[in-house]
Amino acid sequence: MATLAPPQDRPPRSWPFLGWVRGHLEGLGAFSQLTGAAFRNMFARPFYGGDVFLQMDSIGVGSLPIVILTGFFTGAVMALQLADTLAQYGQIERTGQLVALSLVRELGPVLTGLMVAGRNAAGMASELGSMVVTEQVDAMRALGTDPMKKLVTPRLLATVVMMFFLVILADLCGLLGGFLYATLSLGLDARQYWYTALQSLGSSDLSQGLIKPVIFGVIVAAVGCYYGMSARGGTRGVGRATTTSVVSASVLIILTDFLISRVLIGFFGS
Amino acid sequence: MEIAFDAVSIGFATVPVLEDISFRVHRGETKVMLGESGAGKSVALKLALGLLRPDAGKVEVLGETVSAMPESDLYELRRRIGIVFQESALFDWLSVRGNVAYRLEEEGRLDAAAIEARVRVCLEAVELEDAIDKMPAELSGGMRRRVSIARALATEPEIMLYDSPTGGLDPITATNIMQQIIKLRDVNRVTALLVSHRLQDGFLMATQRWDPEHNALRPATDGDASTSFLVLHNHRVVFDGSARHLLAAADPYLQRFLKG
After folding, report:
1. Distance between CA A240 and CA B89 in Å, rounded?
2. Residue B65: C-alpha distances to residues B17, B49, B75, B190, B256 (Å)
3. Does residue B79 belong to the interface with chain A, where contact is any CB pair within 8 Å?
4. Which of A163, A8, A3, A194 is nearest to A93 (CA)?
5. Does B12 contact chain A (CB < 8 Å)?
């Protein structure tokens, strides 16, 4: 199972379980420090606005194809899978409603988060890890630049902002995919599909659908940057950091999704 | 005194790297740090720059206790120290111009024209003016090393730290690099701490001077008072002195080290 323990500095083997626990606690501490510093640096000078826009382009625009495809076919398969069951109960006209609720509440944020984690957490870990093992990060510090401000904070901010819009786009593409299947294959009325889809969305659904991307964005960027900045051991270490970052980010997204859903349903109601 | 290590020790994951090492580098002096691979030479350079913190002891550079300063305070001090990393550590997304100008652009104290002029002066010092628009991937190993030297010179540092500047280079390129370093020492009068695996680099520093009239090296006529040697072995300092004393050392390890 992927962990937050840094790949280097393994504890002695004499107390394996305690060493394992200690390693993971240290990793969690280091991860928390990195994330905290990245947030603090958003309000500290210098602020690397140019780097934020570069990362937004790389993370946001670069993820468009995969997010559009994921959203579209998720919506279409939702309509496909739901059609038979709904037809048995004479509720086929609710296809739009169920596609919309599933996408906005869960599938849009989670699947987009997983796609972005696979693409960008890995990218951040490998890019930053390569910089660490080739001493470019040390060179940055030697030349008077805080690598946290220059490298981590722009990535965190860019990922959070772009995740928000990517999820909205994924939801829209998913509704479109569901719409095309529902109207072309199931013969549903187009206006009925969109009416039931949009009318079913309440404040609870929208809050879940818009809060989750922000938190998932933090997870993707923080995990990718953490593993990148703590990479050791040359190219092998970079490879290990890249793989671990994707697995860790994906697991955290799924775990956090449950926690967020539980909290938000308790707050806004279902 | 420009650099002072006092009883410095550091280790990683319970493995000691440096144990109780102490030495001084005086203004205008070049100290050549020698030792086998893994002796902790690169770690000593990083300690001098505050990139690492010792587990014990004190590191002072230019009158500041680097080992106790917060990172934010070190940024201004590092302006006075230049470092050349073992693998050059050029920023591969920036051109040669971008790399050399990096610190000046980050600081924002000079306008674009002044930065450009300074970049060209630094590249001229390492004879790489023609490579100003190239990317690091287009450069040979020796060229990358020279660009790294130019980048370190951008803020006219008082101290230069060299981490194996000739490592992995062919003999001709290595000699060329050492000529650049000796030229910087004799023209810019910087204090230097030079880490090397090659004995000949140290003895070249000790026995040669830069002749600006002929634009070449000439044998030193004033002895080797400005160049001293520090040898590390088993995490400790086993020698600290002049080239003459190193050659006359009776220690069996030093004799074996000198024979190669």
Report:
1. 22
2. 21, 11, 14, 20, 36
3. yes
4. A194
5. yes
Size of interface A-B (CB pairs under 8 A): 52
Question: For residues B78 and A143, is the Cβ–Cβ distance under 8 A?
Answer: yes
| Distance between B238 CA and the closest CA of chain A, angstroms | 28
From B182's Cα to the closest Cα of chain A, the distance in A is 22
Residue B5 to residue B138: CA distance in whole angstroms? 39
Inspect the interface and report whether the beta carbons of A144 and B71 lie closer than 8 Å. no
Kindly list the residues of chain A whose beta carbon comes within 8 Å of any beta carbon in chain B. 8-10, 12, 46, 134-136, 138-146
Burial of residue B216, with CB atoms counted within 10 A of its CB: 0-12 exposed, 13-18 middle, 19 or more buried: exposed
Q: pLDDT digit string (tens) for A20-77?
A: 888 888 888 999 999 999 999 999 888 899 999 999 999 999 999 999 999 999 999 9
Quote ipTM for the complex. 0.90
Neighbours of A54 (CB within 10 A): 15
Residue B91, chain A, CB below 8 Å: the answer is yes
Chain B residues touching residue A139 (CB < 8 angstroms): 83, 85, 89-91
What pLDDT is stored for residue A106 in this prediction?
A: 94
Q: Which residues of A touch B51 (CB under 8 A)?
A: 138, 141-142
Residues facing A109 on adjacent strands: none
Cβ-count burial A127-142 (b if 16+ within 10 Å, e if not): bbbbbbbbbbbbbbbb
Which residue ranges make up each domain of chain A? 46-228+236-268
CA distance A203 to B168: 64
In chain B, the number of structural domains is: 1
Question: Does B85 contact A138 at a Cβ distance shorter than 8 Å?
Answer: yes
CATH number at residue B122: 3.40.50.300
Per-residue confidence (pLDDT) for residue A5, from 0 to 100: 46
- Residue range B232-250: mean pLDDT, rounded: 89
Please tell me whether residue B214 adopts helix, strand or coil conformation.
coil
Instruction: Name the DSSP class of B27.
Output: T
Whether B87 sits inside 8 A of A134 (CB atoms) is yes
Q: Are the Cβ atoms of A143 and B86 closer than 8 angstroms?
A: no
Q: List beta partners, residue B210.
A: B217
> Which pLDDT belongs to residue A3?
41
Range of the domain at B195: 3-259
Out of B12, B78, B90, the one facing A144 most closely (by C-beta) is B78
